[in-house]
Amino acid sequence: MDWSKFLGNFARPLFYLGEIPVTVASMVQFIVLLMLVILAARTVRRMLRARLLVRLPIGRRDAIARLVGYVVLALGFMVAMQTLGVDLTALTVFAGALSIGIGFGLQNIANNFLSGLIILVERPIQLGDRVEIGGVQGDVVRIGGRSTTIRSNDNIDMIIPNGEFISEQVVNLSHGDQKVRIRVPFGVSFGSDPRKVEKIALEVAAADEHVLNIPQASVRFMGFGDNSMKFELRTWTAKMAHQPDLFRSNLYFALWDGLKKAGIEIPFSQRDINFRNPIRIKSRV
Description:
Elements: H1 3-10, E1 13-17, E2 20-23, H2 24-52, H3 58-83, H4 92-104, H5 107-122, E3 130-133, E4 136-143, E5 147-151, E6 157-161, H6 162-167, E7 170-172, E8 180-188, H7 194-207, E9 218-224, E10 229-237, H8 244-261
Antiparallel strand pairs: 1-2, 3-4, 3-7, 4-5, 5-6, 8-10, 9-10
């Protein structure tokens, strides 16, 4: 086997980038350098998260790590191109054509990527935040370059494009503060003492370990309904902000026990039916 001829195939130009010949050997060299750059970016990002930025909040830590990772990727790509002898100024025409392609075919991808950068810089949402967007509520578990992953209480991951967090209305239930107020509406019979109901509801809130003392829980008399007097127990919590349904359920159980023990009835809907014309029922004897 003629090894010189075999190795010569690797040095044979496949195509030209400007005036620079691109060979199999140069392409392999470029791919290897690019893989090393990607590995270096991931390593730097991992070290920043796990060692250098451990004292920062998790959201800010992830944002800085990702931005530094993108910078390493960009610099590494330029170094790899120059190592192969490619003059970056010769790529201006290619960059112009690429920008036109982005404007038409890759518009959504570019929009989501830029939106991801805005999210990392402005930090309207962070890892661990409880958010609601488009009727979907869950915890932010990952902020990527193109999309953000939200995990619901049913352990279902929803992948949402970053552009929606910029263009749509987003409710961040824990932005800057983990405390949230949970409202628990309930009703009692008309013969009940409203002040006694208020006292029982406040005792129920005070007995729950997840209810915060500051701000204090409160009870509001919301008015008279068709079948009951309407009340609303308003409590603040931090630990149960990510499980509001479970928190309400615990309070409802406690309210049921407390009101039943005090002899206060929780009514149900009732309807009286009156007939204009009496109906005679014949009995068969």
